[in-house]
User: Fold this.
Amino acid sequence: MPATANTDTITSKSPASNDRSVSIAAHQLGAGNLRHDWQLNEIRALYTQPFNDLLWQAQNLHRQHFNANQVQISTLLSIKTGGCPEDCKYCPQSVHYNTGLGREKLLDKQRVVDAARAAREAGASRFCMGAAWRQPTDRNIDKVIELVQAVRDEGLETCITLGMLKAEQAHKLKAAGLDYYNHNLDSSPEYYQQVITTRTYQERLDTLENVREAGLKTCCGGIIGMGESRDDRLGLLQQLANLPEHPHSVPINLLVQVEGTPMHGVEELDELEFVRTIAAARSMMPESMLRLSAGRETMNDATQALCFLAGANSIFYGEQLLTTANPATAADQQLFQRLGLQPMA
Ligand code: SAM
Ligand code: DTB
Ligand code: SF4
Assistant:
């Protein structure tokens, strides 16, 4: 960590911190002081602290900004499945891999409204719609706007993820009342090139800029457990936190390994490493909603509880993500009850 004149450190308040813990100065990690200049060595120092110190620090920051027992609930729907021309090595919807998924058309409005209504009745406050496109056409945008407006009419916040967006398209979506646009950076710039060859990291950053400039809220995170190094995980966090605005929502996905994709069979990530990533994300982006996203289906309850302790405060809820399984709603309700968690209004 760089030297600092401020001696009021967060770790100094920790009764359990010891010599090996990293002093993160309050002016660096405190309320109302969002940083956008993280260096890799600082993130490494934060991330590799003793686990208890890292979690204590993340939980402490979390409590400065949020009610620690409230979790925001989002439900996902794939509105256009399969047949995507991109070659993302993790994704079951790419045409490049044979995963048994067919190519479907854009869902009609009634199907979407029915799903949104069911999600709201089950307790979701946000409805996220995903399309397997590299980039939507202007005609696609007009059709998606109708879906967004129908979901808004059901009283839900709206989020969509359609691939790369042009500036005019982002403005059109904002004018139509869309709340969030999801566009993930997914990994470090270095590892990204090994995961996707059909687009560049810069193109991702350009879309994020178009989204921000249009005044939409950004939902931007990534996937870990893709065989990346720890430094790649740090690099992803660095990119996210050093964006001109911290994303409003940060989904952290654990790779769902799908047979037929090149990433099927990759070595599984240590669950405590996943928890560390959540805690570091919380510490670096203390005001963002941090979503425990794909991968909960295979994660045990104790690990999920640690993720909430590390500052995760949002989940995808409902038995399906886009094309893969998510925990049963009854199991999630039980988990919330066991942990004393309440859905955020
Ligand atoms: N096609 C658009 C795009 O890529 O921007 C939107 C849909 S895409 C399925 C949305 C996100 O889902 C990806 O950025 C990635 O983070 C996540 N995702 C896809 N497949 C996944 C998998 N097998 N495991 C975990 N996350 C996955
Ligand atoms: C995000 O970060 N994760 C969601 C959502 N944004 C669109 C998607 C997860 C997809 C997992 C694989 C699937 O179900 O196809
Ligand atoms: Fe297409 Fe998105 Fe899947 Fe990549 S992640 S193959 S862009 S649907």
About this structure: Residues 7-64 form one domain.
